[in-house]
Amino acid sequence: MGELVQTKNSFKVIGKVSRIDKEFAWKEDQAIKGKREGETFRSLKFGVKTSDTNEITVSMFDYEPTEVFMWNSDKRTKDPSYKGDRIPFATWEEQREDLREQGYAVLQSRVGLTYDENGKIQSQGLPSFVASQEIYNNLDNGDSVVIEGKIRYGKYKNREDKEVEQKTYTIEKLFRIKDVDFDAENFEEVTYFEQEIVFVGADVDKKEGKVYVTGRTIDYHKNFHDTQMIVNFKDSDGNLDDGMVKLAETFAKRFKFGDVINVFGDTLNRVIIEEVEDGGEDVDLFAEFGGKQKPKHANGFTARTYVTEMSIQGVDAYDKGVYKEDDFVDNSLIDNGKEDLSLEFGGKPRKPNPFDENTGGVVIDENDLPF
Question: 3-class SS at 250?
């Protein structure tokens, strides 16, 4: 078997902090088993409400480092062979301000929680072990933030001893921003992700208007994991979306096992609340049988539908036939010259890059679907 190459990903969410006051939100302790038994770790986990109905859980987990990797741009300018410095963690803690003044920066994570008198964010690079505590100590529920990071995939066994997929949204950058108003006229929800996948297969559900895409991700250690994403080709009213229909057809018929695709879309962890009316006959039975009329609060109930999915909106890179089932050999996974492939594959046109700070349809009948 050839060498597997890591598949890249990233995510960005904007919203309001939630559940950071819960008992599980922060922990500092020592590992009690495993290869790192006895080492000190810190974990952070809280929610980000990206709308009134959507909430993404983000987290950090790191052991206390022995060294801190630092970068100095002036050194690189003077010496093109410069590859950074490693400084003992204790030394960094004692001299962090001096090191910053000397032009050194920590690249592992970046945090900005305060603004100066000119309204400029005061951000700093920190080891993740330190950043998690800074975030926990300085954020409260309701604070508005923008977070960027990486998605990690894995599995665990639940209480019923069933294997369940786990997606971990790991914080790499966090900045406090002005208050997000979900009710504002110009509000636009941001739950963006990009994920490079090795295409495994796709199943179509015409009734639901969904294509269930199985994509294989490869981590830094060359372990691979299959995850499911969804192409929704019907809108919330059940109408077909021509661009998404084309994208659905592409996944259902054009992509083959081993193709490497970079997809982008939205992460959903949403509860849909709906008031459902009783569906009885239009007859006043209470008048026939006597007694009192049914109270208003009994005439309907609140139905909750939970939607948790990675919803693919489009494709912006495609490399055909990179892998075979038993032979992963091609190292060229990433096409750096990304172009808008929505015309070729369908889906939605790529929006302005959400990682940048300045960031008429055809009617289709369901019977016309080509898959």
Answer: helix
| pLDDT tens-digit readout, 109-157 | 999 998 888 888 889 999 999 999 999 999 999 999 999 999 999 888 8
- The whole-angstrom separation of Cα 244 and Cα 5 is 30
CATH 2.40.50.140 applies to domain 1-189: yes
What is the biggest distance separating any 2 CA atoms in the chain, rounded to whole angstroms? Answer: 95
Q: pTM to 2 decimals?
A: 0.80
* Three-class HEC string of 272-322: EEEEEECCCCCCCHHHHHCCCCCCHHHCEEEEEEEEEEEEEEEEEEEECCC
Domain spans of the chain?
1-189, 193-355+363-371
Per-residue pLDDT of 342-354, as tens digits, reads 566 667 666 655 5
Residue written as tokens 């309701």? 142
